[in-house]
Amino acid sequence: MSTALPLPAPGELSEQTGPVIIGYLLHWGLFGALTIQLYLYYEAFPLDRLAIKVLVYTVYIIEFVQTMLMTYDAFGTFGYGYGDLSTVTNVHFDWLCIPIMGGIIGFLVQSFYAHRIYVFSESKVIPTFIVTVSLASLMAGFSTGFLEHQLGDLRHLHHRSIYTAAAVWNAGTALCDIIIAGCLTYHLLKHDTEYRRTHLLILKLIRLTIVTGSLTALVAITNLVLFSVPGKIYFTSTGAIQTKLYANAMFAVLISRFQIVGGRGYSSSVDFVATAEFRDNHRMGSGVVHSQQSVVVTIRREVFAERELDELVKTRCINVKGDSASTAGDNQSQRSFSV
Predict the structure, then answer these.
(1) What sections of the protein cross the membrane (predicted)?
(2) What is the C-alpha to C-alpha distance for residues 212 and 219, in angstroms, rounded to an integer?
(3) If you ran DSSP here, which 8-state letter would residue 153 be given?
(4) What distances in angstroms separate CA 165 from CA 8, 227, 236, 282, one per listed residue?
(5) How far apart (Å, rounded) are the C-alpha atoms in residues 34 and 245?
(6) In a 3-state reduction of DSSP, which class is residue 111?
(7) What phi and psi, each to the nearest 5 degrees, are found at residue 163?
(8) pLDDT tens, 214-234?
(9) Quick check: 216 and 6 in contact, CB under 8 A?
(10) How far apart are CA 166 and CA 213, in angstroms?
């Protein structure tokens, strides 16, 4: 005997199926963007430290598994379970994909940002606080997932215990994102320089940090607000994209070092080459040796201001030839120096 529930009115049905469909579509789109960023990272930065590579590929593997599980749920809801309203509100693998995997990805990404803040500030206070709050958020995410799995229906997730766990999970995530965005912006501005290329890179990182940090914090807060609406599953839309936003934000920061020649924000350098000759007198044995040396001076200049030219001069002596007046013959040597 079929256990399918009778279909409600069209308006009520769209309230149940609409957020789920939107969440799946946005989730798949963000996974495509994440895959493209992974390919760019693989091609552009093969010499990154092993720890960074392990973090990148670990995050992507977790995201890949999450996408496969959510695709299975989508097919179960709108494929072989089409017409059965219970398949829409059934938990399926949501308990694992959203709070648990989301908590793991959030902890990894926020720990990555905490390490960057430590490198900039050389202080352990704020990074330790970020990691501690992120770890608490991770534990709350695990609690949310297990409680959700026990209840089994997305419409019944408004018990006090599960709401408290979800509140700690989302609020902790949002707090970490806000602290990370503020600290990174402060330290990037503090390390800004007058050189155009460095200045443009720092501005790009600041914009990226503020946008991604604000977006992830906003999604976490929105997810908590929608979760508090009784009897509705609006939170499935924001929950489905939360982890993908974190992963894409981290990947975007890593590949922001990638620069397209001739693209927006690209700053070319102008090279000047000058040759100077000078005579060097020194004694060798009983006679005086006169050597004439050719020095090639390379000036690499960021096109920003004329007064910065002297600060950016780098000279290299790439070949020094000496002609000896004594019987010692020709003498060749190499020297390097900078001004």
Answers:
(1) 20-42, 54-72, 92-113, 125-147, 167-189, 201-227
(2) 11
(3) B
(4) 31, 11, 17, 81
(5) 9
(6) helix
(7) -70, -35
(8) 999 999 999 999 988 887 889
(9) no
(10) 20
pLDDT tens digit sequence for 178-203: 999 999 999 888 877 667 767 777 78
**What is the bridge-based pairing of β-strands 331-333 and 320-322?**
antiparallel
CB under 8 Å to 321, separation ≥6 — which residues?
Answer: 292, 293, 294, 330, 332
Q: What is the token pair recorded at 109?
A: 């990404």
CB-CB contact of 105 with 62 (8 Å): yes
Contact of 236 with 89, CB cutoff 8 Å = no
Report the DSSP pairing between strands 269-284 and 287-302. Answer: antiparallel
The Cα 100–Cα 94 span in angstroms is 9
Task: Give the whole-angstrom CA distance, residue 176 versus residue 127.
Answer: 10
Quickly list DSSP for 300-312. Answer: EEETT-GGGTGGG
With 0-12 / 13-18 / 19 or more C-beta atoms within 10 angstroms meaning exposed / middle / buried, residue 90 is middle
Tokens of 154: 């997305």
On whether the CB atoms of residues 100 and 149 are closer than 8 A, the answer is: no
Other CB atoms within 10 Å distance of the CB of residue 328: 12
The residue type of 319 is N
